Amino acid sequence: DQQVKQNSPSLSVQEGRISILNCDYTNSMFDYFLWYKKYPAEGPTFLISISSIKDKNEDGRFTVFLNKSAKHLSLHIVPSQPGDSAVYFCAASGGSNDYKLSFGAGTTVTVRA
Amino acid sequence: ETGVTQTPRHLVMGMTNKKSLKCEQHLGHNAMYWYKQSAKKPLELMFVYSLEERVENNSVPSRFSPECPNSSHLFLHLHTLQPEDSALYLCASSQNLAGGSYEQYFGPGTRLTVT
Lengths: 113, 115
Fold this sequence. Notes:
The complex is a heterodimer.
Chain A (H helix, E strand, L loop, with lengths): L3 E2 L4 E5 L4 E7 L6 E7 L6 E7 L4 E4 L2 E6 L4 E6 L8 E8 L8 E2 L3 E6 L1
Parallel strand pairs in A: 2-11
Antiparallel strand pairs in A: 1-3, 3-8, 4-5, 4-9, 6-7, 7-8, 9-10, 9-11
Chain B lengths: L3 E4 L2 E4 L4 E8 L5 E7 L6 E7 L2 E5 L6 E7 L2 E7 L7 E8 L10 E2 L3 E5 L1
Parallel strand pairs in B: 2-11
Antiparallel strand pairs in B: 1-3, 3-8, 4-5, 4-9, 5-6, 7-8, 9-10, 9-11
């Protein structure tokens, strides 16, 4: 049973424009959410996270929004750059004693020059 | 070496072979993880170790056998695998198992093909 879903397997965006990646979850116990970025032949690297006590977290060009009532989060990348072309994974965990991360299947972002 | 390293990066093995995957973390972390990523599927947690003690075996078949001799090294021993076990196997580590940071640091993975 997949508890974290990324329904868009791919996204193509022009350089300089905004990339919006979406993620939905089903487990209401999740209270911490992370985005990871993965380049080919490399492991995923942590990008940005958000706790359920917040609805927005910003780090440079990356902003994550959380809508708990809708069990939905999104990652905005503004402006998109060619180096942002990668696979982005959404992940979630629940409770301070929950070390398990539930991952989505990923969204492949391609930034066109 | 820095971060999390994995060897080999690619492995092709027959169903009757025995092989091992190696992971080493250079971050001073106390927890280590094995994940499996099949094509177009989410990462699946396989095993979790904290301070060299296994704390999670996520219903993984016995043909996969983990070993954690110390907090820096993690192995995954493979024997009599099936073609459906072909996948990318990722190792990760984190400072501690629970509480505080949830950030896990991943290695580059081993691409395994079972023929």
